[in-house]
Design goal:
Structural class: alpha+beta
CATH class: Mainly Beta
Radius of gyration: 16 Å
Low-confidence stretches: none
CATH architecture: Beta Barrel
Mean pLDDT: 95
Helix content: 10-25%
CATH topology: M1 Pyruvate Kinase, Domain 3
Strand content: 25-35%
């Protein structure tokens, strides 16, 4: 289990559904160590802190294993070529990760990295900004159906992290599975 890339973005105004909206979903990978603070990564912003950011949503991680699914879906929706590779950070994640999937994570699990300690806090809930970046209106619905939501992380021990850092999973209480929580929330929304 490891970090494949670390991505950040500053908030910018995007035209979504014909109106200007502040967003920092357009994350881009950065090189070298990145500082980890209680409210997120150095150089990263969350435009709408009512749904992103804060202590429990300081960092967003997404499994690289889901990327081929989204590449295929975007090709089927005819918003991208079949061979169009999505760059890390495209899902709006800070950490593109390998070896950790939603069904293997539980609320309260800890992720020990060489330079910091993070905690699994909750699943991401898709929104209209996700639909916009994916290029088609059903993207949020597909995330809800697939369970490919990624994970929000709180910061227990600030420090730093880098692409290539190994992740040690320290099991939490095993009372609430991340994917099960996400699927229950999505059923309640619909």
């Amino acid at each position: 289990m490891k970090i494949l890339s670390v991505s950040v973005a500053r908030s910018e105004i995007r035209l979504i559904q014909g109106r200007p909206v502040a967003s920092a979903i357009g994350k881009r990978p950065v090189a070298g160590p990145v500082g980890v603070q209680r409210l997120g990564l150095e150089g990263d912003e969350q435009a709408d802190q009512s749904v992103h950011g804060g202590l429990s949503k300081a960092i967003y991680a997404y499994p690289a294993l889901h990327y081929p699914f989204w590449q295929g879906v975007r090709a089927q929706a005819r918003v991208a070529a079949v061979d169009a590779v999505l760059p890390h950070g495209f899902m709006g994640e800070n950490l593109t990760i390998d070896g950790l999937l939603e069904e293997k994570l539980w609320i309260g699990d800890q992720l020990r990295l060489p330079g910091c300690l993070l905690a699994v806090s909750e699943p991401r809930q898709p929104c209209f900004k996700f639909n916009d970046v994916m290029g088609f209106a059903q993207a949020s619905k597909l995330m809800a159906q697939s369970g490919y939501c990624g994970v929000y992380l709180g910061v227990i021990q600030p420090g730093q992290l880098s692409a290539g850092d190994e992740i040690e999973l320290i099991p939490g209480p095993r009372a609430l599975n991340l994917r099960e929580l996400f699927m229950a929330r999505m059923r309640k929304r619909s």
